[in-house]
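Submission sheet (multi-component)
Chains listed below:
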Amino acid sequence: MNIIKASIRNAVRRKWKFALAVFLFGVALAVLTNLYDVVGAAERMGAAFEGEAPPSDEDFGEVARSGAMIALFGMLGVFFAFGSILFAFLLPGGMVANERRSTAIMLWAQHPMPLTSFYTWRYLGVQAVTLAAMLVFGLVAAVSVLPGETASATGVESLVSTCLEGVLACAVSFAITAHGIRRAAFFGMVFYLASGVLSGVLPLAEQSTSAIAALARGVLPFVLFPVNGIDDLAGGFAAEAAWEWGATGMVLYHFAVWTAVAWLGLRRMERRPLKL
Amino acid sequence: MKTATLNGGPAELRLLDLDVGYRKGRPVLAGLSLDVVPGEVLAVVGPNGSGKTTLFRTLLGVLAPVGGEASVSGVAPADYRRRHGVGYLAEDTALPSGWTCDGLLTLAASASGPDADVDRACRLAGVDYDTGVLVEKLSKGMRRRLALAMALMRPTGLLFLDEPESGLDPGQRIRLRRQVEEIRGGMTILVASHDLGELAMMSDRVLLIDKGTGRVVEQPEEGFSREFLEAEFLGLEGAVS
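Outcome: structure written.
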């Protein structure tokens, strides 16, 4: 338990400023969403150019004001979302890889606790901090949800998907560092962003009948960071929504895969603690 | 002062015609034979690449011999490590940044089991500074002492110090030697170092190792001196390459 506590204390001390910055972006986003009619502003911007008459100076003024607010809304949204997920990737980053040449080998030599257990406890501590932070970020995200039909998710869905994405991101980052790769957070983030892009174009493949498209449809969901799967799973928390068992299975599968990848890395280090 | 009761007592090392290598047919250590009695401080001296660290890795159980035998207190090095644990101060003390000394000591103590004694380890290693600070804010000597405390966290019968004086100023080297004096006798200590003066003052015997083979130099009646060890070292084939 001391290892978990020490790990939690260290993670909080290292990253509380980053977490606070992300939180403040989220709070600003929530304030803006609740005090300003973002949806109305977007509608007014569109309406200003819809009439046959050329836009008046008043229309231009309205467009400028609404545009600035929407830009601010978008910027805060991006910073908050990006910061939340980056936080989760950063927390375990380098935990194993940076210690492999000294701390790990010294503790390995003393032996009583195998390195697999030692780093698993450390990981649990970091994961606890990630979950706590994601719960806070998720609550902020829930408060920031746009009203009405414009929203892509309800507050509860936002909370659940933020938590799941963060916890899985932490697992991915830990799995990478467990194999001795130093820039785990960077590679994790690249994987996450690439997965987001590919998940976005995946629906296009559904219209194609080519063999490659069929292969992409079948394989990619098992390989990419399950952004869509997490959203579908979170959708099950919405009122009157059917529970998405397929999405649940997919998310659990990804947790299992990344945990297994991490475990293999730790086992490898246990057998060969020094890079020889 | 002798250390507290240890796991299994000071270790006895025995190497018999030991061959160790990283690649087939290219041994780093070839036909090395050596006996180290319990409680002895053995200095391991040799040019860079002579096989000092390889010897430590073999005795830690990281590397398996390709020929001959290596045993620690009658069992294979890996088995000894699993049963009793081994203190090891790595040559490269790149302690993880972002941790306080307290945090790292807590981690090391937690991983070292119920025998761990933070106070004893800090006292023996000379960690007498504020341990609430971040590791990256420590001087190299302070970091080295912190690493030594981590290596001494669990009382063991065998301690490897791989270039412990690396990066230490003269005062810190003297202090380190005194710390070795304090723990000697209670555990068997192998020290690899290039500082012949310090080794002369702390060692019972010296293993001169060069190109995979080794020769033990017994202490003369008047004791080791820097000049004596320099003369022995310069006699090595690879010493002035």
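Remark: The interface with chain B takes residues 2-3, 5-7, 9-10, 13-14, 94, 98-99, 101-103, 105-107, 109-113, 118, 121-122, 272-274, 276 of chain A (CB under 8 Å).
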